């Protein structure tokens, strides 16, 4: 019924026939009362479960499960995942051969159950020597639309997207950092469901679709990173966007101190957004309510709680190309000790490849070559039209970053020194002729390297860190 006559090895050296496998699945269905249907390369267990009334669980209730042994099925998997809570639906991806494809999606009835599954089952040894990975899964309902005429208003973009696609719920448009009357040339379009977003993307993706006479760019927007409620309850830093570039940190601090003098610890501003650190969470939450929508230097600001992300992980992901320019709101803020300039550029914060210990990250494992078939169409392209996810080195990221901010390209100046044991050591000084404040800036790390490539990469990393590229924000506008 499910596996035909395929023989399955269960990981302990014993072979389970297709008939035995079918019997095990039937026994699971009889025991639980759930239905099981196989379609479109996946097998659905439940969805909804027996006796379920009302709508499906909200977003955030589903987890992704990876590294599942290919000969493991619902009769073994479901009892494991039931430890975290009631399963609404279990979707196991299947091969035509009858083996699973190594991954599944488990939707629980509540977000708390999904979070518990991540905590207790991530890296769980499901068979001797076999560890599964469990992380949050979000159905993406948001598209990134680029190459939009900058004079178009939010209402115009919303109306146009509703005309050409179905299921549009909202459009998010950011004003230009330099001219608040214009948009930044892109928008995020929110759809009522993942299916509606997927259908819209399929219609718009070919690259020939035009809006207002312009060929637009279309891609999935990276979903906002989920931060657990317990962590968010401790946050006492506010993220403030839509500021004027000319607005000073002192002005921001004074404005946020008005509702309660002395409540602001410090402010860190980068271009048109800032992080406001408070001494207490209560004051931060109160200030968010009071200040959201207020005007500072003529600009109406937006204020939310900043979402903390581990800096080391974010930097490693950034270098590995795991953060793309579609990331709308992935924020990284520093704690009291992170402002210490002495910590920047230290070897401990750099990828291990600079020390000869580099092990490939997730994106690097996915890198591969493809055959170049005769007749394959090649299209000339500028590197600046690509996404930052196409770059794996800090050198390329820095060049891309400068271009996106309309700065002159970084200039590299090489210097050498001799170590105590007689080795030649190298270091680059990077000069950016025109940065955010219109003045020339230069950056030089406090470490020397033995190879030219490492010296250049280290200098680029150091420069990005000092520009605030990683420590304080990986916001779309700054990529």
From TrEMBL:
Any single Gene Ontology cellular-component annotation: cytoplasm
Output the PROSITE patterns linked to this UniProt entry: RRM
Q: Where in the cell is it found?
A: Cytoplasm
- InterPro entries assigned to the protein according to its UniProt record, in alphabetical order: HnRNP_R/Q_splicing_fac (IPR006535), Nucleotide-bd_a/b_plait_sf (IPR012677), RBD_domain_sf (IPR035979), RBM46_DSR (IPR044462), RBM46_RRM1 (IPR034434), RBM46_RRM2 (IPR034435), RBM46_RRM3 (IPR047837), RRM_dom (IPR000504)
> Single Gene Ontology BP term?
oogenesis
Could you state a single Gene Ontology molecular function term? RNA binding
Q: Which UniProt keywords apply?
A: Cytoplasm, Differentiation, Meiosis, Oogenesis, Repeat, RNA-binding, Spermatogenesis
Q: Which residues form a coiled coil?
A: none
Q: List each copy of the RRM domain by range.
A: 61-139, 141-223, 236-308
Q: Which domain of life is it from?
A: Eukaryota
Question: Keyword Cytoplasm: yes or no?
Answer: yes
Q: Indicate what this protein is called per its UniProt record.
A: Probable RNA-binding protein 46
